[in-house]
Design brief:
The complex is a heterotrimer of chains A (306), B (458) and C (286). With 458 residues, chain B is an alpha/beta fold. Chain B folds into two domains: 171 residues, Periplasmic binding protein-like II (D-Maltodextrin-Binding Protein, domain 2, 3-Layer(aba) Sandwich), CATH 3.40.190.10; 222 residues, D-Maltodextrin-Binding Protein, domain 2, CATH 3.40.190. Chain B has 20 helices and 13 strands. In chain B, the strands form five sheets. A four-stranded mixed sheet of chain B has the order 2-1-3-13. Chain B has a three-stranded antiparallel sheet with strand order 11-6-12. Chain B has a two-stranded antiparallel sheet with strand order 4-5. In chain B, strand 8 and strand 9 form a beta hairpin. In chain B, helix 16 crosses helix 17 and helix 17 runs antiparallel to helix 18. Chain B is globular and about 70 Å long. By secondary structure, chain C is mainly alpha-helical. The chains are: A mainly alpha (306), B alpha/beta (458), C mainly alpha (286). Chains in contact: A-B, A-C, B-C.
Chain lengths: 306, 458, 286
């Protein structure tokens, strides 16, 4: 009785620390993110842009900007592009990362030089996206080394114009995304796997489980929280995809706007400082990302929620 | 152990720079404060401001200024401060716009005094109140400006008021390979070659001959664009409606034909392949180029050994020659504008005079740098001299430029040239490549045009 | 018994071989990008334009001098600016994210669940959403040309928070805090002196991610910084990229890229032992 009472008073006295420790985060978030966001949302209901050096508006137009987005622009097309680009890069990324993470944490496999490999696979992420895009542009250009190799090997006769074919351009962007991010994902998944109690693996080994059984029956289910984190952060990153396709396609999202992502589209509106349209697009982006993230989170961790 | 030492050193240096950084911000805000009080004093006693802020996007003008007009600083007792913002993602204009709009409230030493613009978007500024009249406000006389090429004045003139000046004239031309001309056309003489290229029909004829002989007429899609787009009969936009001129469509037709028939090598402007086509292994007859492109870009690309001597024997040095080509056009150029609200008018006047009106200085610039400058008298003098270029096989190309520059007509320039030219070229590439049909390409063009300029309609 | 052992060992050998092959391929691809960047820094502009080459060029000295002697590009100042911004960003982001995660992990209070869900929700908001408002705000606050709008927002980093929270769940037993309390340690003091050192592996991993991200960030600095003395390296790289065509020099550009990539590699190699050792994440132990 006295003990539990004591505990309770302790709880009360520590509570304030919880709030105290949260202050910096919420204060900074409020000032630097929340206020800008609210003003963005606010402007989405106005016609407001620069024509040369003249400011047009702001004039309240209700939902006009939203209606324009859905009727005049190809919003759905850009959404589709973005998702395709993300999936193309993410699927190989998660598969390879899962395999690598499993190898690195597999105590039976005992890979030599694993330290070297772990160090090296993350390194592409250190290169600026713009420099990385520049490199790829050179490698895959019409008279670049990749075309030369393919031609010398007799696979193609004429240089293949990667950048002017939808599949080529999308494939390149996905490949770059994969190379830049699989190391990061591997590290995160490895961290998740190391958090799993080793006793479980030992028990499985004693029971004679095969590596793939261990992976699907123990590793995967227990990895779900981290997997959800990886998928959601990657999804958010994917929906924000901008600099790679922007630089690789010189901002035009070609061919035929098939690599134009949502943020590139947003960026086009920033050219004329179109606060109205950019605001409306931002709101839609926010809704889409939020909904998708929650949906993914529920889908993956659904059972655990209960 | 080594690693540990390294990390301690790193941590120490990081701490040091952080401290320095914090100190730095304090110091700079302090000096800013000081500067503004000084400035207030200055303006109250109606003296010339102490700092001249020049907004530009690269260091080209800076090096011209430092070589030919730096002494003016002492005369006027000012310091020149270059605010250089890269063009990428429209950042230069965005920053300049923000600075101009804050002009009234800015401390006088933070105000924009001079800004530079390119022809493609010059009218955005010359039509605004932010660019000053170089005669009425700055104080240059009509006589001072009389030797400037007309087109360089037209581009920055609004309702008869000239609002900027430039030190360059940039007439376009067609640079061709002498060896290929001899082989296919039987002559490499610029006048004779010009005769065979003097209109587009003849140009097409030569193109087909080039193809038969195993060469390309042009390197890529964009090469001839400016020769067409500078000769339109209507501006890009009339009453907020986008007008695609017939001559622009002629470019589309020509380029599509050239692409389908293999008259060009399917490159794009400034792409590595395009540059490579200008080198020793190139199979391309010629390139539409402008004054500045000859000695900077084309020369560099023509060499076999970049580190070697720039002389005959290195790659195809000496194999190029220039002629006017089918239509007069210009490409490039930078204009100087004085910003409203500046407190350095007398400095600006002297500098504009020195760099854009003074025949002696401009002649010197041309002889020093081979840049073609904006002074008819000075250029005619060089044209009629025995000046010649080794790179162009002994041709006096200044004489050719002097002829071409007079013919340029830029009366159909609009506020939207930069954005619309860019959008059209980019969307049409896909049509040339065969990925989309002409209609889709045009639709894509309109769409990106309206994204850039929400006030426009199809 | 012996036979199955043998079989198992053969299959292990095969799996090992496959893993080595794939790892070696991936390592080559990774390192090749760096090789190409550094290699191009030794080549002249026209050579780079003319095509790809595996062999180094002869223009290293020229490119290096062009970058170093360029009076417009304040490369050393840019390097220092980048170091200040990235280091401050990383420190604030890992320290305060840990603090936020600690608050939610350790304490019980009424709005705990709400705070947690709220942070997860805002993690899903793309940064660009607020970009326009952000520029208006910092202009109004007179923070243009200042590092503050680049550094301070790092305090609220939801993704780092989430990572730290997960790490605490797997590796930070509450007993340690109880023990500290019995010793009469103040909560804030406990967090700084006892908890932070325990979080080191996770902090290091997030520091690498954060440093690379901030070091290579072009978007936000381009909205905030225009003065030459304030610019960070990515802004200078963009500057070289948009140089006038007569001055455009790929050799110089690659040299600049190589130059700017060096510090981040050093930081990475120093911290990479934490990546090699790995950190354990997750809440699945009990």
């Amino acid at each position: 009785m006295t003990a539990s009472n004591k505990n309770k008073t302790k709880h009360v006295s520590y509570k304030k620390w919880g709030y105290l420790f949260l202050i910096p985060f919420f204060l900074v978030y409020g000032v630097f993110s929340f206020i800008p966001m609210i003003s963005t949302f606010y402007y989405s209901f106005f016609e407001n842009y620069m024509s040369g050096l003249k400011e047009i508006g702001p004039t309240f137009v209700g939902f006009d900007n939203y209606i324009k987005l859905f009727t005049e622009g190809d919003l759905l097309k850009y959404f589709e592009n973005t998702i395709i680009l993300w999936v193309l890069g993410f699927v190989p990324q998660i598969v390879i990362s899962l395999i690598l993470a499993a190898w690195f944490t597999d105590t039976r496999l005992k890979l030599k030089c694993s330290g070297f490999f772990k160090t090296v696979i993350y390194m592409p992420n250190l290169i600026m996206a713009s420099s990385f895009a520049m490199l790829f542009f050179a490698l895959f250009s019409n008279n670049g080394p990749i075309n030369l190799i393919l031609m010398n090997a007799g696979i193609i006769k004429e240089p293949f114009h990667f950048m002017s074919s939808t599949a080529g351009a999308r494939g390149l962007i996905a490949l770059m995304n994969f190379l830049m991010w699989y190391g990061n994902t591997t590290i995160l998944l490895m961290a998740g796997m190391m958090g799993i109690d080793t006793a479980l693996f030992e028990a499985a080994e004693v029971d004679g489980a095969t590596p793939s059984q261990v992976f699907s029956k123990i590793t995967m289910p227990l990895l779900k929280p981290i997997l959800a984190y990886v998928i959601i952060t990657s999804l958010i990153g994917g929906l924000q995809m901008f600099d790679l396709p922007q630089i690789l396609t010189n901002g035009k999202g070609g061919p035929d706007r098939t690599t134009m992502t949502l943020i590139m589209y947003l960026n086009n509106h920033l050219y004329s400082k179109n606060y109205g349209m950019a605001g409306a697009l931002s709101v839609i982006l926010f809704l889409v990302t939020g909904t998708l993230s929650i949906w993914v989170f529920k889908a993956i961790t659904g059972q655990r929620e209960k | 152990m080594k690693k540990k030492v390294l990390s301690i050193m790193l941590a120490a240096s990081v701490m040091a720079t952080m401290l320095a950084g914090c100190g730095g911000t304090d110091a700079s805000t302090q000096t800013e404060g000081k500067a503004s009080t000084q400035a207030e004093n200055a303006s109250s006693s109606l003296e010339e401001g102490k700092v001249v802020n020049i907004y530009c996007w690269n260091d080209e003008f800076k090096s011209r200024y430092e070589a030919y007009a730096k002494d003016l600083e002492e005369k006027h007792g000012v310091t020149v401060n270059f605010v250089i913002v890269a063009n990428e993602n429209n950042a230069y204009q965005n920053n300049l716009d923000a600075a101009l709009q804050a002009q009234e409230s800015a401390a006088s030493d933070d105000k924009v005094d001079i800004f530079l613009v390119e022809a493609d978007y010059a009218s955005k500024y010359t039509k605004s109140e932010y660019a000053l009249d170089v005669v009425g406000d700055v104080g240059l006389t009509a006589d001072d400006l009389s030797q400037q090429y007309q087109y360089t004045k037209d581009i920055v003139t609004v309702d008869g008021v000239q609002k900027g000046t430039t030190w360059q004239a940039t007439p376009g031309l067609f640079a061709y390979r002498r060896s290929i001309a001899k082989e296919v056309l039987g002559t490499d003489d610029p006048a004779m070659v010009q005769e065979k290229l003097s209109d587009w029909a003849k140009f097409d004829e030569v193109a087909s001959k080039m193809k038969d002989a195993g060469y390309f007429m042009l390197s890529g899609y964009d090469d001839s664009f400016r020769a067409f787009s500078n000769n339109v009969s209507t501006p890009w936009v009339e009453a907020n409606k986008i007008v695609v001129d017939d001559n622009i469509m002629n470019w589309v037709k020509q380029t599509k034909t050239y692409t389908d028939k293999g008259y060009n090598n399917k490159t794009t402007l400034w792409a590595p392949e395009w540059s490579a086509d200008q080198g020793p292994d190139g199979k391309v007859f010629g390139f539409f180029y402008s004054t500045w492109g000859i000695n900077f870009t084309l020369l560099g690309n023509s060499l076999a050994d970049a580190e070697g001597e720039k002389a005959v024997g290195n790659g195809i040095f000496g194999d190029y020659a220039v002629c006017e080509g089918p239509q007069a056009y210009y490409w490039g150029g930078t204009w100087i504008c004085a910003a409203k609200g500046t407190d350095n008018i007398s400095f600006i006047k002297d500098m504009m005079y020195r760099l854009t009106c003074d025949a002696e200085t401009m002649k010197k610039i041309t002889l020093d740098t081979q840049d073609y400058t904006n002074n008819e008298a000075a250029m005619n003098e060089i044209a009629s001299s025995d000046y010649s270029s080794d790179f162009l096989g002994g041709q006096n190309h200044i004489a050719l430029f002097a002829e071409a520059a007079k013919k340029i007509d830029m009366s159909n320039i609009s506020d939207y040239d930069q954005g619309l030219n860019e959008a059209l070229q980019q969307t049409m590439h896909e049509y040339f490549e065969g990925n989309v049909d002409e209609q889709t390409a045009l639709e894509n063009f309109y769409q990106s045009a309206i994204e850039k300029y929400p006030e426009l309609t199809k | 018994m012996k036979k199955t052992n043998q079989k198992a060992s053969i299959s292990l050998q095969i799996r090992r071989a496959i893993s080595y092959i794939i790892l070696i391929i991936l390592a080559i691809i990774s390192l090749f990008s760096f090789y190409m960047l550094f290699n191009n820094a030794t080549r002249a502009h026209v050579d780079i334009q003319r095509g790809f080459s595996l062999l180094p060029g002869r223009s290293f000295a020229r490119n290096f001098n062009n970058v170093i002697n360029n009076t417009t590009i304040l490369i050393v100042r840019g390097m220092i600016n980048s170091i200040i911004v990235s280091t401050c960003t990383v420190m604030l982001s890992v320290y305060f994210s840990s603090m936020t995660a600690y608050a939610i992990h350790v304490y019980d209070f009424k709005y705990k669940k709400f705070a947690f869900n709220f942070i997860l929700l805002i993690m899903t908001i793309p940064t660009q959403v607020g970009a326009l408002g952000f520029v208006k705000l910092i202009t109004a606050m007179d923070l243009k040309e200042s590092f503050i709008p680049l550094i301070v927002p790092a305090i609220a980093a939801p993704a780092v928070f989430f990572f730290m929270k997960q790490y605490m769940e797997s590796s930070l037993p509450l007993e340690i805090i109880e023990a500290a309390r019995i010793d009469g340690s103040n909560e804030f003091y406990t967090f700084n002196t006892i908890i932070i050192p325990l979080l080191k592996p996770a902090l290091a991993v997030q520091a690498i991610f954060g440093f690379a991200g901030s070091w290579n960030n072009y978007f936000t600095p381009s909205l905030v910084l225009t003065k030459a003395t304030k610019k960070t390296l990515p802004l200078w790289i963009a500057y070289i990229r948009s140089a006038d065509f007569t001055k455009f020099d790929m050799g110089q550009l690659y040299m600049m890229v190589a130059f700017s990539i060096f510090p981040v590699i050093v930081v990475y190699l120093i911290l990479s032992k934490f990546i090699v050792q790995g950190v354990a994440l997750g809440s699945v132990k009990g």
